[in-house]
Design brief:
The structure is a single chain. The chain is of the alpha/beta class. The chain contains 17 helices and twelve strands. The chain folds into two domains: about 5-130, Rhodanese-like domain (Oxidized Rhodanese, domain 1, 3-Layer(aba) Sandwich); about 130-340, 3-Layer(aba) Sandwich (Rossmann fold). The strands form three sheets. Strands 1-5-4-2-3 form a five-stranded parallel sheet. It has a five-stranded parallel sheet with strand order 7-8-6-11-12, with helices on both faces.
């Protein structure tokens, strides 16, 4: 009989043991435990039919229909699992019910040991959401658009500092142009799952660097407790000259096609204003991408400067570190030095 593990134990075992998600393909695609392999007992259509039968005719009729669907697939399920080369498997469905227990019985019939998630994916999600209430010693990395915050964040990690790369997890660089060149964004639920995995690997007694972000990163949203903690965390401002920031934007975005760039500019038309938006679009269409970048950069500078003033009283009162080139390696040691002087509230 399959052993049942708590969500915490289950996730720890998943670091070294194959994990099979037997929910439907649609459930898995929407969100899943990072690293899980999809081995659906039912297709999306089959799951819907079984559920309808259960509702209208009861358990016996739905189980019989389920057996009808599953029967031809049994050999394929076992072949998939045996090819993983592990004598032990982790497995879950939505609530830890019939789908996972039935699949566990099948796998054990071919000599595999199965460990089930108590309460299924639903229990895992409860643990994920509760985790965002945990205290974290966050230092925000702030600065105007093009300051090089993401590059510095990754360099801090290379220097031994702990980071959470929210934009990397969200597949989005944060601005109206942030989706250019990026893979499709995960759902907010999947983003939370990825974020939970990153945070669970950190030593929360040490500081954690996070880029200063809006509540949303593209189409995904930060968990409310984490967002509130970030809003109350100390911020170090990266002070990068305008022309270097412009150079970075040209390097990172001028390579994209005109259609993608103009679509991104149109996203901020209301905030940019009709005249400035038209000027930026015309510049882009006439291949004067630097002028378009300057117009957008001026808008983002004004917006972010206002936000800092509203949050901290004055942006000039914030500790800052200068970054006078595209290479931030020299800036990292100074950032760490400034961070060492910051005290965290207990």
């Amino acid at each position: 009989m399959a052993k049942v593990l708590s969500a915490d134990e289950f996730i720890k075992r998943a670091e070294s043991t194959p994990l099979l998600d037997v929910r439907s393909p649609g459930e898995y695609a929407h969100a899943h435990i990072p690293g899980a392999l999809s081995l659906p007992l039912f297709s999306d259509d089959e799951r819907a039919k079984v559920g309808t039968l259960y509702k209208n005719q009861g358990k016996v009729a739905s189980v019989q229909k389920g057996l009808e669907f599953v029967g031809p697939k049994l050999k394929g399920f076992t072949k998939f699992a045996l090819k993983l080369g592990s004598e032990e498997l982790l497995m879950h469905c939505w609530r830890g019910g019939m789908r996972s227990s039935s699949m566990a019985w099948l796998m054990e019939s071919v000599g595999l040991r199965v460990l089930l998630l108590d309460g299924g994916y639903k229990a895992y999600r409860k643990m994920v959401l509760e985790s965002f209430d945990s205290p974290m010693k966050i230092i925000l990395l702030g600065g105007y658009t093009g300051s090089g915050k993401t590059e510095l964040l990754l360099q801090l990690n290379e220097a031994g500092e702990q980071i959470v790369d929210l934009e990397g997890l969200a597949n989005h660089k944060g601005s109206a142009f942030g989706a250019l060149g990026q893979p499709d964004q995960p759902s907010t639920e999947q983003f939370e799952n990825l974020l939970f995995r990153e945070i669970s690997r950190l030593d929360l007694s040490r500081r954690v660097w996070v880029e200063d972000e809006s509540r949303n990163v593209g189409k995904v949203f930060l968990p409310q407790p984490l967002w509130e903690r970030m809003r109350n965390s100390p911020l170090i401002r990266i002070d990068t000259p305008y022309e270097i920031r412009l150079e970075r934007l040209m390097r990172d975005y001028a390579c994209f096609d005109t259609e993608g760039l103009t679509a991104s500019i149109k996203k901020i038309e209301k905030r940019l204003g009709f005249d400035k938006c038209k000027k930026a679009l015309d510049a882009c269409l006439s291949d004067d991408r630097e002028l378009a970048a300057r117009i957008c950069l001026d808008y983002y500078d004004a917006a972010y400067g206002s936000q800092l003033d509203n949050r901290f009283g004055s942006r000039e009162s914030l500790p800052s570190v200068k970054m006078n080139s595209l290479d931030g390696k020299e800036t990292v040691s100074e950032l760490i030095s400034v961070a060492d002087s910051i005290s965290f509230k207990e």
